[in-house]
Amino acid sequence: MTLVDSLTVAVTVPDNDTIVMVKESNNNLCAESLIKTSNICYGICAIEGFIVVTVKGGYVKIVTKAGEEVASLRHNHRGELLFTDPQHVETNRDQNELYVTDYTLHTLTALVLTGVKIDSQPKFIFRSNELRNPTGLCLDINGNIYVCGFASHNVLKVSPDGVLLFAVLTCAINPHALALTVTEDQMLVSTLSSGGGRSKHMQNVLEVFKI
What we know:
The chain is mostly beta strands. It is about 0% helix and about 60% strand.
């Protein structure tokens, strides 16, 4: 989910290959429009007037609010695959960079953004033995990136230049999404674990950590 404007959020619905534009009106949430994607869609963020979304097949795409595709990236400047299973995507405050996690490549990739043009030559590709199956990510006011390691059960803090600073959390069970509070003194982490007992269902838990 991402905030498009003060009254509108965009939400990916992977099972339906759809982005739903949801608007707040009179304290009610209403689906305003639907955007079909070419395949299962996952991560989403907004840049001025446009939506960035990760799509199954290894794509990062930029679309208008009407659903028109204006940019798509899968390969780097040498023709090599950048992504195979892109998950979450986020932009920095200046909206001139994109950060994308790839679950199967175990990478956090920084891309340079000029308007709606994505440079195929990455700013950096972060890899570490401490990061396995990365999923959710967010940025702080200084541009540091916090990234979830789903299989490494941790949250790492990475500098804007792609240098590992330290592990913020080392005991999170299957973290897959996170966010910082406005004051950046707390981190909200969504974790996924078995329900326990005889339950076969996975349990989604939101944990709050002081940082």
